[in-house]
């Protein structure tokens, strides 16, 4: 047991976060996402059973700094045909992400198929039990000053 660490952080999640470096990306995805069939840089899938995407983001962003040296420190998956209009799942999660962004950093959206392609370049995938569709995000690791 460690002091000061959110008990919802699994050993696998801690290991992935500690191995990431500046600019590495982490795909945080819902229960519908094909996490085990789309290969990432490490091939790792971290399961977060019992947590929705908002709680999963809170857990991760409690430890992980977001990148402020790029246009978007985080991206969210657009619903097909909706463009950058956020769904309720995005509306619930975006305040958590925005609160973790460094000054001057932004959050953006990405079309669903482009999300799948970008996620293949992610360091790893964290899959939660979110059941609202399109509840998927890419977080870009920043630096700790």
Automatic annotation (TrEMBL):
InterPro entries in UniProt: RbsD-like_sf, RbsD/FucU_mutarotase, RbsD_FucU
Protein name from the UniProt record: Fucose-binding protein
GO molecular function, one term: fucose binding
Gene3D superfamilies per record: RbsD-like domain
Classification via SUPFAM superfamilies: RbsD-like
Pfam families named among the record's database cross-references: RbsD_FucU
GO biological process: fucose metabolic process
Catalysed reaction equations from the record: alpha-L-fucose = beta-L-fucose; beta-D-ribopyranose = beta-D-ribofuranose
Keywords: Isomerase
Source species of the chain: Aliigemmobacter aestuarii
Segment forming the signal sequence: none
């Amino acid at each position: 047991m460690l002091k000061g660490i959110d008990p919802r952080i699994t050993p696998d999640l801690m290991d992935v976060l500690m191995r990431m470096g500046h600019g590495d990306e982490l795909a945080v995805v819902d229960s519908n996402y094909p996490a085990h069939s789309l290969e990432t840089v490490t091939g790792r899938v971290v399961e977060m059973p019992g947590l929705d995407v908002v709680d999963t983001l809170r857990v991760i962003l409690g430890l992980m700094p977001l990148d402020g040296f790029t246009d978007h420190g985080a991206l969210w998956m657009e619903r097909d045909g909706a463009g950058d209009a956020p769904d309720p799942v995005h509306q619930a999660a975006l305040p958590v992400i925005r609160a973790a962004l460094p000054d001057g950093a932004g959050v953006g959206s990405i079309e669903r198929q482009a999300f799948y392609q970008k996620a293949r370049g992610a360091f790893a995938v964290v899959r939660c039990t979110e059941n609202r569709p399109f509840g998927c995000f890419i977080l870009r690791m920043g630096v700790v000053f």
